Structures are given as C-alpha cells and as structure tokens.
From TrEMBL, chain A:
Residues 516-596 form the SoxA A3 domain. NCBIfam families: soxA. This is Sarcosine oxidase subunit alpha. The keyword Oxidoreductase applies.
Automatic annotation (TrEMBL), chain B:
GO terms for biological process: tetrahydrofolate metabolic process. It comes from Mesorhizobium intechi. The lineage of its organism: Bacteria, Pseudomonadati, Pseudomonadota, Alphaproteobacteria, Hyphomicrobiales. Pfam families: SoxD. GO terms for molecular function: sarcosine oxidase activity. It comes from the Bacteria. This is Sarcosine oxidase subunit delta.
Length: 997, 98
C-alpha cells in the first residue's frame, strides 16, 4: 500500500505502479502519477517547510502552481539540487529525493522559529525600519545576515550539468490553459485548420475537471472527455499540444514565453533530452483560459499544516486517491467547499463540521451535505486553529461574537471563493475592471489581440464557460484567416456551480485583534501587517505591497492579492476599485536561468574571434588578452620570463632589430565609388581630395559634437578606392556611423562601403631590419625609400599571394603592415617569421605595442581619449583640414566650451623618480597639501615602464596642460604622493629620424 | 519582443534585427559651419521626447542594413507605420486621431 491515507478505488492512479522516494532522508512509497505532494499526503506527511520570515511550520495549501508553502529542494546528484520546487507540481519518479528548506537543525525543531516569538520585530516594513542605521552596518552586517536568514532554499554550488533548448514558434491561435474552456477553444480553432498551440502547466490536461466529479461533457465524465479531446487535438497536423508547459510571460504583439519541463518528471532523463525547453511563440490571436484560483480564509493560525484549500483536498482525493485527513473540518464562505466535504464523506472520511460564514445559504450541495449527516454551522466563524506542527482543532464562534466551541480536527478545508487568474491578461497590458456584484477583477480593456474565456474571464459554470470558449476559439481562428468551420461544439450535460464568497479578514482576525491571520503565506504577511502599512501612511496599493511584501516575489499574489487589497481598502475606508489592483509581473511562476540562457553559456555565451595566426601564437606560448570579442596575443614569454621581462625584451628587440605583430583585429573598411574622396572629406577631419593614390594619411573621425570618435591610417589605393583602418573596438560603430551618413545625410554621393576586417590578415613588421625581412618575399613592389616612402601603400604579391603593403609605423621605427587575404595569414606570417629569424626578429604582443606607441606619444582612442576630447585637446590640430567648409563635427568643434581656455589637454608626464610607474586613471592635483576633497586637474590615461627610455613614461589629460610644460604636479596615492613633471608626449626619438632608420 | 516592418524588405521582422537610431526628421544644415550656437543646440541637443507619437529612425541592422523612419507610440510601444529614409513626415497616420 502506497500510504495509509490512500483511499481504495478513489482517484485515477494505478495502485500497481509504485515509486519509492525520500523526504528529508526518510523513505516513503508513492504511486506513479503522484505529485510529491500527493505522495507525502498519502503517507500522512503535512509538515513540509518553514516559512520565510517567522519560520512557522507549513504544509500544503494547494494542489497546483499557486502553492506558496510547500517549496522543497529536489536533489538528483551533487550538481543537481533544485531549490524552491513546488511539491504540488513536482511529479513523482522512482528514487526522487527531496529536502525541506529554511530550517535548522530539523523541520520539526527549527531554531529560526524564535522569529515567530520575536514577531513584533518583523512586522510590516521591518527591513526598512530595523536595518536603517548605521549606514556602514548595512553592507557588512545586516545584508549578509538577512540574505543568510531570509533565503528560500539554497542554490546549487556547481555548474548546471543539464542542457536546455530554445525554440521559436508561430501559430494562428495560441490557447493558454488546458481546462475545459481551453480545450473547447482549441477544438473550435483547430477544426478550422489554422495552426493552433495549446499549452497547460499540468502533466495532464483537464484543469478543474481533475476534481469536479459532477462534470459531464458529451456523455462522458469531464476528465475522460478532456483526455479524449486532447488525444484528438494531438493527432491533428495543425495542432501542437504542450503539457507541463507554463506560459510565464506575455510580451508585446502577442509574443508569449512558454517553458516546457521536459526532464524533471523522469527517473533518468537521459542526456539526449533537454531539461527544459523555452518556447518563444508569436501568435496571431491568443486565447487566455487560465482559470481561477481558490482563496483561503484569513483567520488566526490559518497556516498550520493540515489547513488547505477545499479544491486542493478534492484534487488530492478525486485525482490522486488521497485523503488529507481522517477527521476533517470545513470553513467556507461559498458553496464549493461543500463539494469537497461531500466527496470526502462519501470516501469514508469523517467531516467534523462545516462552518459557513453565510447566514442561511441554500442550494443542492448544502442539501446533499445535510442528507449525508454532516454537521453544518451557518453564521459562524473559525476564529483560530489549534496545533503547531499539524492542525489539531478549530475554535468556532458566532460571527458576531458569543460562546466559543473547540472541535478536534486533523485537517481544515477552506474556501473564500475563487479569484480569476488575470496574470497573463494583466501582463499583456490589459486593464482589469472590478465587478462590484461578484467582487472580483475581470479582464476589462484589452491591449492586444487576445481574449479571455471561462473562469479567468469571470464566467461561472462549466456550460457557460465551454460555450464562451468555443465561440472565442472559432472567432480567433476566423480573425487569423480561417475560412470554414466544421466542428461540433462540446455539450455540457452536467456541471457544478457555486456562488461567490468573501474578501478580506474573517471575524476573529479584525482590526481589533493582534492574531497571526495570514494573507500571503509565502511572504509571511498577516492581515495586521496590511493594516499597519496603511496606518503608517501607505495609501497606494503598490506601496502597501512593497512595504509588506504582500504578493511579491515568486508568488505574485496568486492566493493573496484580493485579500490584501480588501483589507487595505477597508482600512483606508475606500471602495476596492479605488484602491486598485497591483500590476502582475512576469514570470507567472519562476523560470530557471537555464531555460532563458539555453545554449548561450560557456564558450557559446559570446562569439570568440581569433586571428589567422592564433594557432601559431598559441604554439609559441603566447599569453592572450580579450579585446572585445577578439583574443589577441598579449606577450610572448620565453622560459622563465614574467610579463615584465617579456615586454622589456620585445620592446628593445623592435627598436634594435625588428618585431612581428599581428594587427589583424584593426577594423578595415573599403570606401569605393566615384564620390569616395568627397565622402571621406565629410567623414574625416582631414583633407582627402589631394591625397595621391598610393599614399596614406592618418585620419581622425569626429562625431557631430566635435569630439574624437575614431582614428586610423587610410590608404588611397586608387582615385575611387580608400582602404580605411579603424580601432579594433571601433570597427562596427564606425561602419554604422559611415552608413548612417551615407544613407541618410549624403545619399547623393555615389559610394559603397564594405567591411573588410575579416578579409585581410595584417602582419606588422616594425624595426630597423623590417625591410630586409620583407623584401625577399615581395614581388612587384619597389621597396626603396624613394618608391615606397613612409605613409604609402602598394599592391603586389608576397609569398605569391596578393598583398596590400603599407609602409607605416605605430612604433616610430621603419615599419610595414602586410595585408594578405586572411586564409594566407598564418602561412605568410610563418614565412616572415623564418626570414625574421635570420635578423634576430621577435614576435611581440599588444602590451609591447602599447608601450612602443606611448614612447612615441601616439594616442589610443578610447584610452587616451574618452569621448570628451577634441582634436585640439589631443594635440592633433594638424590633422584638421583648415580650408574645409564641412565635415562631421566641424560645427560642434567650434562650440564656445570646446574652444575655451583651460581645457584638459594631452601631455606627457615623467615621474621625478624614474622607477615609479603611475597608475592609469590616477588623479592629478596642483597642490597635494590642500584639504580633501582636492581639486583634481586631470588624470593619467596611459602609463608604462619603458625599457627603451630606461624610465617610466605616462600620458595624461591635464587642464591647460600644454601651458604647464616643465611644471611639477602631484599624483596623490594611498601610499603617498608621487611628484611628476609635465612634458611633451614624445619620449623617444623626438625628431622621428628612425622612421627611415 | 516587437515586430517591426522594414519598408525596404517589406516584411515584419523581430525587434532583435533592428537598432534604434534616435529621432527622425532632424535636418543637418547644408551650411554646417555657419550655424549659430542656438541653431546648433537645437540640431544636436534638443529632442522632443513626447508621450505618444514619436518619429524615429531605425536601422534594419541584421537584415538589409538600411536606415528608415518609423512612427511609434511611446505609451503602447506600438509601431503606427514605417517609411523609407528621405520620405517626408506622413501627414496622416493610420488609426491615429488627430
Ligand atoms: Zn530590411
């Protein structure tokens, strides 16, 4: 037998298929088809968790996704420990292991429960009040302690070994919710032939038909009808049926996020299956059939294990064959709980009493309960529950006061009525409307192409729901283009129906009381907390929500919203619609990071770009650095060298013999067309019309505001063809910037732009021996200084492959940049390397490149400039065409502030102690003895040890810097003040003779 | 995720393929260097930021790569219409009361 509380012949599970599982280390037996909740209840286990704030013992409130209490950790192995799983949703598999959360040392004896006694400290807004002062204690003391104490569950500490998948889907009609209404809508739409997706969060379709034993459709039991209808839908080519699939978010233009749980219910999911699958669905029409959620009664100690929603108890009995107790009390304000009492009574469970807040309700369920001999008390309230780890009694009192009577029970079923699930409707930006007669919010104004049907639309009764849904499904299909319908509407033969219920605190938990009557179980919010929030000045329901945390976090107010709102409205003395409903946020239920991230993690998180010579550099033992998405060789250490030693050696070698450097990551754009030069004139500060083909020029690009946006060497290959280089990081935005102007401002220019960054590998060969290394490999290019002077470009061949050979230098040495088609990059590099070995050349990386260029005062846009630096600030006025009447930035550059005195200008800095290397980003002051906060006049932008100079060197942006040559300034650091001298930006070979050396 | 109709591709494509490029119909002066400080301020810094209908530039970055103009409602995020770069500001908007 799978548990003492399993009722023979009740429920739909096969008793033969047992499954072993454990909870907190104790072994139990359940049945296949159980949830963890039904299996535990079958074994008489109600106590499954401790609450968030007060650590109160908690059991199951519900039988579904609205469960606020029974959150457990499912442990598959060392890396798979999923916290906060709803035990009412987790399907049982053989070998399942679950642990309770939020308790220490054990569930029945939890030290944290002292919070319950100290509860005045934890009342509404306690985070805001208790942990305000002193400020410094927040980071070091309060926050870590709160996080430790308040966490729900423990995150796994190992990488997630599972994989997830993600799919896009398009359909005509998307039906969310697979109860009777959703199925009817899907049938109506599917029969027209349009593409339909039907999704439901449960393992089996049917919704409330799982427990409504009174429902009959098309001559069958309601649940059996649902299974037959799903089988029919599943067999249709135009229909996709998704079970275990939660619609968690409704986004713009009928874009809906669904997450399908693929593996969590399986004993051994197998690695060929994803754990979850994310569906991103774009639907022409959406039908919302999300049903309604039952509300609990708000009374003292209504959170004791064994107290649950009446509908949940019916589900456990009628679907899973489990009785939630042997001696059950019922507390209700509407008819639906009677049906639960009747079902349990018929299954042989004693119903201790029904306590009904209403005065003299009448109806068939009441008659039936009475006929079964159940004691019914009208006009009475349960004012408190007894028991601690499990409910043991309910104390009853006439609702207007009077004598108390305590009745022994082992479970209490409660129902305050049903709340339409408008979460997805609200997420779609629809506006809800309050129905004053039925006291509930229902969909009002729609913002998207969707429609609500059945219980979530406030439609009562199965027959009316199915009619409405079928019509809506057919209309959605028509609206999305269906031609004809040939289906037959399902006929509801019998259904259950019940009236409304109540909102807010029940008698005994009113404003004059201090009892713990819970409104929001997950966030431990009581009726008293809501009132206190109002008394402390919260007027808006959004403020009440945040102050008390009612309806926040993963729960999103599924069971608590309406009660909280009613209590706030009552305390404010305002009607409910004037106080208003809080906004429902996505996700409807928590979504794993895995489902969202899918395969985009680890190496697939972001593309990695590697240059053609990457394998060579790797084989040489290069250390790489990330530059945007690129992996670039940073330095090439020899045995025993650290970075410092390697960079010193590389830098000296370049200036003594030669160095090879992979510059392929530089952005490259080909600007081609009859108006190419005109276009260049407009996009760069420099003049281009007169640049002869075969020559190069250093270009500066500004934004319209006059600040430096990018720079690079541009070669003119032909009158109508420019080979433009950009910074490594700037390539995409420069291309975008150029396209923008070409397409929208200068569309009259006949120009084409092509990104050629990845087409050309670029090998820089720099140093006195550079020509000797290259020349033997080159064909068709005269390498003499006369034919190929500094800043020129030729097309020819190297190693037999085409090359664009630039004579240019970013080191200050004689230098070349060899562009070859990327596929030949490594081969040409290896040939150059072999040649270089004859001359003692070295390979150098980005660090040495930085040092070498700084020795020459060459700037790096984005390091020495920061988006507020003009060409003049950077000492680059010579690169601005003085005779030009227009280029992007020409007017911005002339703004009063940009030509004012005292702007920060790029200068060189030498530390008085040549061995001290400044920190990049360090601030500069005039007087180090001034009071803090000091007046900062600039900062260090680049700083290195220069082995070639035998000292440290730095570039800095300093206010009025060029007027301070020779001045002493100060860089205050934690370990003392560093004295520096303002100098020019060139530290090595000031005359530039080495360019031809 | 929004669907945006590219007037060049003549197709509705997901938002991920597009980049916003700021407010539309801000003309760059043909005599840029002669602009007054006030005119340059209006041209470069001042944007309308309306609650309601906004005229924007978008680029079909991961599609045809063309820049185009769009009319969008900043309250609902809905695109009212899109049209090609260089076309005049539409006098009448479909489905929008004047
Ligand atoms: Zn396009």
């Amino acid at each position: 037998m799978s548990g003492a509380f399993r009722i023979p012949r009740a429920g739909r599970l096969s008793q033969a298929k047992t499954a072993r599982f454990s909870f907190d280390g104790q072994s139990y037996t359940g049945i296949e088809g159980d949830t963890l909740a039904s299996a535990l209840l079958a074994n008489g286990v109600h106590l499954v968790g401790r609450s968030f704030k007060y650590h109160r013992p908690r059991g199951f409130l519900s039988a579904g996704a609205e469960e606020p209490n029974a959150l457990v950790q499912i442990v598959r192995d060392d890396a798979r420990k999923t916290p906060n799983v709803r035990a009412t949703v987790q399907e049982l598999y053989d070998g399942l292991a679950a642990n309770s959360q939020n308790r220490w040392p054990s569930l029945s004896f939890d030290v944290g429960a002292v919070n319950d006694l100290a509860s005045p400290m934890f009342s509404a807004g306690f985070y805001y009040k208790t942990f305000m002062w002193p400020k410094a204690a927040w980071k070091s003391l309060y926050e870590p302690k709160i996080r430790e104490a308040a966490g729900l569950g423990v995150s796994p500490d190992k990488p997630d070994p599972d994989h997830y998948s993600s799919r896009y889907a398009h359909c005509d009609v998307l039906v969310l919710g697979g109860g009777a209404a959703g199925i009817a809508a899907a049938l109506a739409a599917a029969e027209t032939g349009v593409r339909v997706i039907l999704a439901d969060e449960q393992a089996e379709f049917g919704g409330s038909l799982r427990f409504e034993t009174g429902a009959r459709i098309d001559g069958q039991d309601g649940f059996a009808w649902a299974q037959a209808a799903i089988a029919r839908l599943g067999a249709m080519d135009n229909v996709r049926v998704l079970s275990r699939t939660t619609a968690f978010g409704y986004y713009a233009q009928n874009f809906v996020g669904l997450v399908e749980r693929v593996g969590d219910h399986l004993k051994a999911p197998g690695h060929d299956l994803p754990r979850e699958r994310l569906w991103q669905v774009r639907a022409k029409r959406v039908v919302l059939a999300s049903g309604a959620i039952e509300r609990h009664m708000v009374f003292a100690n209504n959170d004791r294990p064994g107290i649950m929603l009446a509908g949940a108890a019916r589900t456990f009995l009628n679907h899973y064959g489990v009785a939630v107790g042997r001696n059950v009390g019922v507390y209700t304000a509407n008819d639906s709980a009677y049906a639960a009492a009747i079902d349990l009574k018929k299954a042989g469970v004693n119903i201790a009493a029904i306590v009904d807040l209403r005065d003299n309700p009448t109806g068939p369920v009441i008659d039936e309960a009475r006929a079964l001999g159940i004691e019914i008390n009208f006009g009475r309230a349960v004012i408190r529950a007894g028991g601690k780890l499990r409910v043991s009694s309910m104390t009853v009192q006439p609702k207007n006061g009077g004598g108390e009577r305590t009745i022994s029970v082992d479970a209490i079923l409660m129902s305050a009525g049903w709340t339409p699930s408008v979460h997805l409707f609200s997420q779609s930006r629809g506006k809800v409307a309050f129905n004053d007669e039925t006291k509930r919010f229902v969909p009002g104004t729609y913002a998207q192409d969707c429609v609500s049907v059945g219980a979530c639309n406030g439609t009562d009764g199965l027959s009316a729901s199915v009619d409405e849904a079928y019509a809506a499904g057919a209309k959605a299909a028509r609206d999305s283009g269906a031609k004809s319908a040939k289906g037959v509407k399902p006929k509801v033969d019998a259904s259950e129906s019940w009236s409304r219920g109540m909102l807010g605190a029940a008698p005994g938990a009113g404003p004059d009381t201090t009892v713990k009557a819970f409104v929001d179980f997950q966030n431990d919010v009581t009726a008293k907390d809501i009132r206190q929030a109002v008394h402390e000045g919260m007027r808006s329901i959004e403020h009440v929500k945040r102050f008390t945390t009612n309806g926040m976090a993963t729960d999103q107010g599924k069971t608590s919203n309406m009660h909280g709102l009613a209590i706030a409205a009552e305390t404010l003395g305002k009607p409910i619609p004037e106080v208003g409903l809080t906004t429902f946020r996505a996700p409807y239920t928590p979504v794993t990071f895995g489902a969202i991230v899918s395969h985009a993690r680890g190496p697939l998180f972001d593309p990695t770009r590697k240059t053609a010579t990457h394998p060579w550099a790797e084989a040489q033992g290069a250390v790489f650095e990330d530059v945007g998405q690129w992996k670039r060789a940073w330095y090439f250490p020899k045995a025993g060298e650290d970075m410092h030693a390697a960079v010193d050696r590389e830098c000296v070698a370049v200036r003594t013999t030669a160095g090879l450097f992979d510059a392929s990551t530089l952005g490259k754009i080909e600007v081609v067309g009859p108006d190419a030069a005109k276009f260049m004139e407009l996009l760069y500060t420099n003049p281009w019309e007169k640049l002869e083909p075969g020559r190069c020029r250093y270009g500066i690009m500004l934004r319209e505001d006059g600040f430096i946006y990018d720079d690079g060497v541009v070669g003119r290959l032909a009158p109508d063809r420019f080979h433009v280089t950009t910074t490594t990081g700037g390539a995409p935005r420069v291309m975008n910037h150029m396209e923008d102007y070409l397409q929208t401002e200068f569309p009259h220019l006949n120009v084409w732009l092509t990104s050629i960054t990845e087409q050309w590998a670029v090998i820089a060969v720099q140093g006195p021996k550079s020509r000797d290394i290259i020349a033997p490999l080159v064909e068709g290019i005269d390498m003499s200084d006369e034919a190929l002077p500094h800043m020129s470009v030729r097309e020819g061949k190297i190693c037999g492959v085409p090359t664009r050979l630039f004579r240019m230098s970013f080191t200050g040495e004689r230098g070349f940049e060899v562009n070859v088609p990327a596929d030949y990059g490594q081969a040409v590099w290896e040939a150059l390397w072999a040649e270089g070995q004859k001359h003692g050349a070295t390979a150098y990386g980005t660090e040495s490149m930085h040092v070498l260029r700084a020795e020459k005062g060459y700037i790096i846009v984005g390091q020495d400039t920061d988006g507020t630096v003009t060409p003049n600030d950077a000492g680059l006025d010579w690169a601005v065409g003085k005779k030009k009447s227009d280029f992007v930035g020409i007017r911005g550059m002339a703004r009063p502030d940009l030509v004012a005195k005292g702007r920060k200008q790029l200068v060189g800095l030498k530390t008085k102690d040549p061995k001290v290397v400044l920190e990049e980003g360090a601030q500069i002051v005039e007087d180090p003895k001034q009071a803090i906060p000091m007046k900062m006049i600039g900062h260090v932008t680049s700083s290195y040890w220069s082995q070639n100079c035998g000292r440290s060197i730095a570039l800095a942006l300093v206010a009025g810097g060029r007027d301070r040559m020779g001045d002493t300034l100060y860089v205050p650091m934690p370990n003392g003040v560093i004295e520096v001298e303002v100098t020019g930006m060139v530290f090595f070979d000031e005359t530039g003779g080495r360019l031809n050396g | 995720m929004l669907l945006i109709r590219c007037p060049y591709c003549e197709e509705e494509r997901p938002e991920l393929e597009f980049r916003n490029a700021g407010e539309a119909h801000i003309a760059r002066s043909a005599n840029m260097s002669g602009e007054s400080d006030d005119d340059f301020e209006k041209f470069f810094f001042i944007r309308s930021n309306p609650k309601g209908i906004i005229y924007e530039r978008w680029r079909h970055m991961h599609g045809c790569a063309r820049f185009f103009n769009a009319v969008r409602d900043t309250v609902t995020d809905k695109f009212v219409m899109t049209y090609k770069a260089g076309e005049p500001k539409p006098a009448k908007l479909p489905g929008v009361a004047k």
